[in-house]
């Protein structure tokens, strides 16, 4: 069945992510496969994506690459139903999460947002909130109650998985805004992990960071890869080559909506692309 939204659904402030604290700290859910089928997207009458199909395998890192404006971020935002929050936005096609339609009428939008987390370009911790409370912020929104020891274990686990624990373990009560940009981004990753997502979407997560912080975030991405499916938008070809297992090359030619020219294993995309446009792009000849 094809889900089709012809008008955007209003964002419902009551629909905040729901979450449960894990019964066993460290026992997270397994990564999920995302499968986009013939996804088209519009802003008003402007069609920006045309029938994009892409399977993003469970427990792998998929990089979305391509020149500015070809629809990578829009595609990313269709995957966890953020696209529909833009007034006038519309969408056609299907997004399957382990075979289940993310846009099925019976599926709550909150489920999609919980199962499919998102990390943005600019680190966005709550600046005045403590590091500890930032990690738990997604749970607090739902009023989830848990004993202190369970919370402590979850905070340590998520900060460890995000590669930040050793740097902040002695100052968990300091404000999130006091961390460096790279540390703030890893704090945002820890916050995303606390609600147990099975997929993590990352929209240029390192573009506001210096090279050292970028390297730390890349290490975090690599260490998370077998625990949570990752889909990352990046303009940095070296980064795509370093962190991803698979790549999809997006292009919007001559005023046409964006689409995928080619996708496949990262190594093949960089060393033996099938399409000359992919070869030109990955070798920096345009874009
Ligand atoms: N909120 C919006 N309202 C209207 N048009 C938008 C909106 N967001 C994006 N667009 C348009 O959709 C098209 C795709 O934009 P998108 O941001 O998805 O591309 P991108 O490949 O991620 O670009 P970049 O690499 O520069 O971030 C562009 O033409 C852009 O102008």
From TrEMBL:
Domain ABC transporter positions: 34-282
One term of GO molecular function: ATP binding
Compositional bias per record (Basic and acidic residues), positions renumbered to this chain: 274-287
Record keywords, A-Z: ATP-binding, Nucleotide-binding, Translocase, Transport
Record-linked Pfam families: ABC_tran (PF00005)
InterPro entries named among the record's database cross-references: AAA+_ATPase, ABC_transporter-like_ATP-bd, ABC_transporter-like_CS, P-loop_NTPase, PstB-like
Protein name (Swiss-Prot/TrEMBL): Phosphate ABC transporter ATP-binding protein
Span list, region Disordered: 262-287
SMART domains according to UniProt: AAA
Lineage, top ranks: Bacteria, Bacillati, Actinomycetota, Actinomycetes, Kitasatosporales
